[in-house]
């Protein structure tokens, strides 16, 4: 019998739409299916910092809309139709690191791709993934996307 006060099992995944983050989401869905957990896919967005630019209120809706479309497309690509795992897709305003670390509280696992959209293409691990590995409140899995290998569906 399951404890009524037990916190549901939850795996958090950072998604930025990059091939690496889609691979991370696909891996997390498989792991969640294996252990009976739910998946929370998180995308973060923020206005770029530029001297003298404060943004416009309409920009916020536009940026959040792009983030939502990116997240929804990644979820659709990663899980496909008929997936038995529940995926909650959440868009958060703010930096990716802080959003993922906050979402990972009380999660049993945080999953990130090895490389996102930013930074140096030759780096083995992106800055967001590196920071999460060092500071997450739960175990972290880093999924590497291999462009030469066909995606596993």
Please tell me about this protein's structure.
The protein is of the alpha/beta class. The chain has a single domain (10-143), classed as HUPs (Rossmann fold), CATH 3.40.50.620. Helix content is 37%, strand content 19%. The protein has 4 helices and 5 strands. A 5-stranded parallel sheet has the order 3-2-1-4-5, with helices on both faces. The longest helix is centred in the middle third of the chain and has 23 residues, at 57-79.
> How widely separated are the two ends?
33 Å
**CA-based gyration radius:** 16 Å
**Largest sheet, order of strands side by side?**
3-2-1-4-5
Helix and strand sequence: EHEHEHEHE
Low-confidence stretches: none
General shape = globular
Tell me the number of strands: 5
Q: Give average pLDDT, whole number.
A: 82
SS element count, helices: 4
- CATH topology name: Rossmann fold
Level of helix content? Answer: 25-40%
């Amino acid at each position: 019998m399951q404890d009524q006060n037990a916190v549901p099992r939850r795996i958090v995944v950072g998604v930025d739409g990059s091939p690496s983050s889609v691979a991370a989401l696909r891996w997390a869905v498989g792991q969640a299916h294996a252990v009976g957990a739910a998946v929370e896919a998180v995308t973060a967005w923020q206005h770029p910092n530029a001297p003298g630019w404060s943004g416009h209120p309409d920009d916020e809706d536009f940026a959040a809309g792009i983030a939502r479309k990116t997240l929804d497309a990644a979820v659709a690509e990663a899980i496909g139709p008929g997936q038995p795992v529940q995926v909650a897709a959440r868009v958060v305003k703010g930096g990716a690191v802080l959003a993922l670390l906050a979402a990972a509280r009380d999660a049993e696992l945080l999953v990130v791709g090895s490389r996102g959209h930013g930074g140096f293409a030759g780096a083995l691990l992106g800055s967001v993934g590196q920071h999460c590995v060092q500071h997450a409140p739960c175990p972290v899995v880093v999924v590497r996307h291999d462009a030469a290998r066909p995606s596993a569906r």
